[in-house]
Amino acid sequence: MKTLLVTGGAGFIGSCFVLQRIAAGDKVINLDKLTYSGNLMNLKDVESNPNYVFIHGDIGDEKLLRKVLPEYQPDAVVNFAAESHVDRSIVDPDSFVRTNVMGTSILLRCVKDWWNTLEAEKKSAFRFHHISTDEVFGTLSMTDPAFTEETKFAPNSPYSASKASSDHFVRAFHETYGLPTVITNCSNNYGPRQFPEKLIPLMIANALNDKPLPVYGEGLNVRDWLYVEDHCKAIDLIIHNGRVGEVYNVGGHNEKTNIEIVKIICKELGKPESLITHVADRKGHDMRYAIDPTKIHNELGWLPETKFEDGIKKTIKWYLENKEWWETIISGEYQNYYEKMYAHREEI
Ligand code: NAD
Ligand code: TYD
């Protein structure tokens, strides 16, 4: 059994990880600021579990971190906390710098200071696991080989630039102070509890409400989709068996164009493709992401378990069975977001 300090555990991927680790018998301290995408409903199944503790706070709050770390003595810190949506980063880059860059740097510094007080055995067993994205590598053409751990960083959006910066800080804390860090760069995740601003849940929610399905440009951009539970299993495997100071790419071997995804959703929900509306493209829209997960497969035996055909069915079933979850979201502040992002987006 491990004690894990998870940051951003009330979000999409973090909550999946928390649920998996509590089910496996670990103790989880979840520190989350509860921004628009953090939702305690995601964790209602574990809220009264004695192995689960929730702390409402910011990864940039030094005073809080200096209290929490010695109090709970985690075996690992798993950093999911981030501003995570590319479109929001285009209109408000600064908040991405604040959390993804400054927040990660403050978290690293507080963890490093506390880690230095530990006895040798606990010190070498400790891990700082940073969750990152394949978007730090920039974009691929249709014929380029997939991203490996050696691919040069070339972030194109304020989101990916802030994540690339946070990855560099994690690396620097390992090289400079010897903090036992590991970074994972993962492809696009999908599954239950994803905030409806992202492609798959947005299209499911709109289709269920018979609203237009806003595909950016021609919809030919490619993403490599991974079921969220498979991502979380990879993280756990790396915390236990990954090599310190390393980076691992995690991906689904599952490249699809956006238009393919939207058509699959229409078909699964029995909705007409006439709902699909091509709208003005995203600024600086990356054409293609693809991950080469050879390293994590060869070293740790990890492979994605969930086929896209099954994962998308499970995801749609979850949104159908949890209408209240997303209806509560889309009837609130999200309406202003949607208006701002989509109402003035020209149809093409
Ligand atoms: P999300 O937006 O659903 O969740 C982010 C969580 O972080 C929320 O609970 C939010 O309240 C919390 N948070 C934000 N700022 C915080 C702060 N300053 N202090 C503490 N908590 C804060 O995001 P997600 O999709 O679950 O992504 C989680 C991580 O995985 C991010 O680091 C993201 O970059 C990375 N990632 C995401 C994907 C994807 O497809 N969603 C793919 C690869 C990597
Ligand atoms: P998104 O889910 O925002 O993830 P990311 O940009 O991090 O890959 O978008 C996935 C793809 O779907 C991306 O190419 C942009 C596109 N997209 C649309 O076409 N329409 C939408 O309304 C959204 C949110 C995304």
3D structure, described in words:
- The strands form four sheets. The protein has a seven-stranded parallel sheet with strand order 3-2-1-4-5-6-11, with helices on both faces. It has a two-stranded parallel sheet with strand order 7-10. Strands 8-13 form a two-stranded parallel sheet.
- The chain starts with a strand and ends in a 5-residue tail after the last helix.
- Helix 7 (199-208) runs parallel beside helix 9 (258-269) and helix 11 crosses helix 12.
- The chain is α/β, with parallel strands linked by helices.
- The radius of gyration is 20 Å and the shape is globular.
- The protein contains 13 helices and 13 strands.
- The mean pLDDT is 98.
Descriptive tags:
single chain, 348 residues, alpha/beta, seven-stranded parallel β-sheet, 13 strands, 16% strand, globular, binds nicotinamide-adenine-dinucleotide, binds thymidine-5'-diphosphate
Draw up the topology in text.
Blueprint: E1 3-7, H1 12-23, E2 27-32, E3 52-56, H2 62-72, E4 76-79, H3 86-91, H4 93-115, H5 120-125, E5 127-133, H6 158-177, E6 181-186, E7 189-190, H7 199-208, E8 213-216, E9 222-224, E10 226-227, H8 228-241, E11 247-250, E12 255-257, H9 258-269, E13 276-279, H10 294-300, H11 308-321, H12 323-330, H13 334-343
Parallel strand pairs: 1-2, 1-4, 2-3, 4-5, 5-6, 6-11, 7-10, 8-13
Antiparallel strand pairs: 9-12
Helix pairs in contact: 1-8, 2-4, 4-6, 7-9, 11-12
The chain binds nicotinamide-adenine-dinucleotide and thymidine-5'-diphosphate.
